[in-house]
Specification:
heterodimer; A: about 400 residues; alpha+beta; 2 domains; nine-stranded mixed β-sheet; two-stranded antiparallel sheet; 11 helices; elongated; B: about 240 residues; alpha/beta; Rossmann fold; six-stranded mixed β-sheet; four-stranded antiparallel β-sheet; globular; binds adenosine-5'-diphosphate; binds magnesium ion
């Protein structure tokens, strides 16, 4: 085996240009696959971090009737905040949020929104809720950039907000936009308007009530609470993994094609070299190799392409990948329209496992593809190989 | 005699399938070759020299009859045993040298020793010895494409001789060489035969080679035609 490696190295280096072309194609696959996978891991990480920072904190309690996908449940999904949480809330380790359905009338149009009451002094979310802590002639409100753009709203704009109180009676008031914020979480931006919690409770006559309770510490042991459903952080972020997984399927097709091209090049090289090197094959046998050992030699030789490619990839790939991890990859198109939790610039994250598994997959495929045509050698007649007469 | 023989061939026939029929390349060959012989199979092209050499070299097997080489019956060897025999006891020299083009002279000559799993320092010593015999010490780092035909064949001889095999099989070794180079390599092989007691079996129809042979076995249409020994050979 050691001899085979030695010989394979000499033969490969000796083959010159052809070897390097194969190696470059393969190394390109290495770097692109690691980079793309790194982007996906980075995206997953970014989306979860943003989700934590803007939407779910360290986990939540949902009112048992609350269904984020069905706005009609909102009228039933509110209840007084359980007594047991008051201490946590005082320490700002938990923030209640009340959500009711409402309608706004920007420029005379009608737009249905979720009105979210939030504590202006909260510390769990990155939401600029301090902007709700102002005294104005109307109710202060903050909205996400996505909605601001869609409805052509700006800071300082006044809107009429209509809602129904706990008894089902309609009421209306003016709100003023005090801030437009940008998150990478469409789920908290589109169709949502944030106003001070106490104000909303007052408007709806739902004193001391909430729809969601978000806590800061994801580690703390949580027991079930009557009327509320505990949603641990992992469960809430599972949707991100799901989304990334679906995107990865499309990517895998791309890797497949990339690898297929590289493998075609290797396969072609193997077939050609077995045909052109018959005399050499015969010579190996005359010098004391069995045919199977020659198959092994050619397989090792083909597989060595991938090992060389790994080395070459390391040479230019490590600086490239490191640079990408630092500056990130900024997508050329505006991602806020995607409706996905995606940042404009993604920072790839490469794990040891990712690199090792990619290298293993490429080396293994190359070995198989090198072995396949080499099996022909096992059926060669050595005397005919020496004459170079096999077609 | 029997103990002193290196090749014993009995009633050997070799035929190749040719379409629906068989083509008989060797017919009923009987031969005994002793240790240390410097013998040639002589005959025109197509007379079966290479076929016989390949069987003796365990690269092919007889259709019928038997061939013993160093007490191994060629037809009965497994692929592994045959490879073992070639690796340890046989050396091959080809008409077209068959050197590994991308390897240096040193690496080419070292190759059989790598197969024998010898240590690096021992390999180096043996390779340098062999290159010395062939007068190639200044070409150690050259690669075959940079060498002349005569030099290539000397490298090939060094490669065949490096492990001090019992038997060297040389198929038309001078066919691609000019007269001066032919004489040079033949003299070298004759010296090696004398000093290392290596048995040589040639296949040739080159008059220059024939002149050096101590024994000439003439093949014609796959049969032994004549078997002549040089009575007044080396003094
Ligand atoms: N593998 C083979 N298949 C068919 N015919 C063969 C094969 N090898 C040799 N022959 C035939 O056997 C005869 C002897 O060949 P060979 O031993 O190469 O002769 P020489 O070496 O004396 O020129 C030739 O007619 C050749 O065509
Ligand atoms: Mg011949």
């Amino acid at each position: 085996m050691k001899t085979a490696f030695k010989l394979a190295c000499r033969n490969l280096i000796g083959a010159g240009l052809r070897t390097w072309l194969n190696v470059i194609v393969l190394s390109f696959s290495f770097v692109v696959i690691i980079w793309m996978k790194g982007i996906m891991v980075g995206w997953d990480h970014q989306a979860k971090t943003d989700m934590t920072n803007w939407e779910i904190g360290g986990g939540q309690y949902w009112h048992e009737n609350y269904d984020p996908y069905d706005p009609f449940t909102l009228s039933e999904s509110h209840a007084p905040v359980p007594e047991m949480f008051s201490e946590e809330i005082t320490r700002s380790e938990m923030e209640p949020m009340l959500i009711v359905q409402g309608t706004i009338y920007p420029q005379g149009r009608m737009q249905s929104v979720a009105v979210k009451g939030i504590n202006p002094k909260q510390k769990i979310f990155l939401l600029p809720t301090h902007k709700l802590d102002t005294v104005t002639d109307a109710v202060p409100a903050i909205i996400g950039a996505l909605m601001a753009r869609n409805l052509k709203l700006n800071v300082g704009n006044y809107l009429t907000l209509r809602w129904r109180d706990s008894k089902g009676t309609f009421d209306a008031t003016d709100v003023v936009i005090t801030e437009v914020f940008t998150s990478n979480v469409p789920a908290i931006e589109s169709g949502q308007i944030y106003i001070p919690l106490e104000k909303l409770r007052e408007m709806t006559m739902m004193d001391g009530e909430a729809t969601l309770l978000t806590f800061a510490d994801s580690e703390k042991e949580r027991s079930p609470v009557e009327g509320w459903v505990h949603k641990p952080k992992d469960e809430l972020t599972a949707s991100v993994d799901e989304m990334i997984k679906t995107k990865t399927v499309g990517q895998s097709v791309f890797y497949g094609i990339l690898l297929l091209l590289a493998m075609l090049a290797i396969f072609d090289t193997q077939v050609l070299s077995i045909f052109r090197r018959q005399k050499e094959i015969g010579t190996y046998i005359a010098l004391g190799y069995t045919r199977r050992e020659v198959v092994g030699l050619f397989t090792v030789e083909g597989a060595m392409h991938s090992v060389l490619a790994a080395v070459v990839s390391a040479a230019y790939g490590i600086p490239f990948l490191a640079w990408q991890a630092k500056v990130g990859w900024t997508m050329p198109m505006d991602v806020s329209e995607f409706g996905m939790a995606i940042a404009q610039t993604l920072y790839p994250i490469y794990s040891f496992g990712l690199v090792v598994s990619t290298v293993l997959i490429v080396v293994l495929t190359t070995t198989v593809v090198s072995y396949w045509p080499s099996r022909k050698i096992a059926k060669m007649n050595p005397t005919e190989a020496l004459r170079g007469r096999i077609q | 005699m029997e103990n002193n023989s290196i090749i014993r061939i009995k009633n050997l026939t070799k035929s190749f399938p040719m379409g629906k029929t068989q083509f008989t390349a060797l017919r009923n060959i009987n031969l005994i070759l002793g240790k240390g012989e410097f013998t040639g199979l002589i005959g025109p092209s197509g007379s079966g020299k290479t076929t016989l050499l390949n069987i003796v070299g365990s690269l092919d097997s007889p259709t019928s009859g038997e061939a013993w080489v160093l007490d191994h019956s060629i037809g009965k060897l497994t692929a592994k045993q045959a490879a073992q025999l070639r690796k340890e006891k046989l050396g091959f020299i080809f008409q077209s040298y068959n050197l590994l083009a991308v390897h240096t002279v040193f690496e080419n000559v070292e190759f059989p020793l790598l197969l024998l799993k010898m240590g690096a320092s021992e390999r180096k010593k043996m390779v340098m010895d062999a290159l010395e015999w062939l007068g190639l010490t200044d070409k150690v780092k050259s690669k075959p494409p940079q060498l002349s035909g005569g030099e290539c064949q000397r490298v090939a001889i060094a490669r065949a001789m490096v492990k001090k095999p019992s038997l060297v099989l040389a198929d038309e070794p001078t066919a691609n060489l000019d007269a001066a180079n032919s004489h040079h390599i033949l003299k070298t092989m004759e010296t090696l035969n004398r000093e290392l007691k290596t048995t040589f079996l040639f296949a040739t129809h080159d008059e220059k080679v024939i002149g050096y042979l101590h024994r000439k076995i003439y093949l014609l249409d796959g049969k032994v035609d004549r078997d002549e020994r040089k009575v007044n050979s080396e003094k």
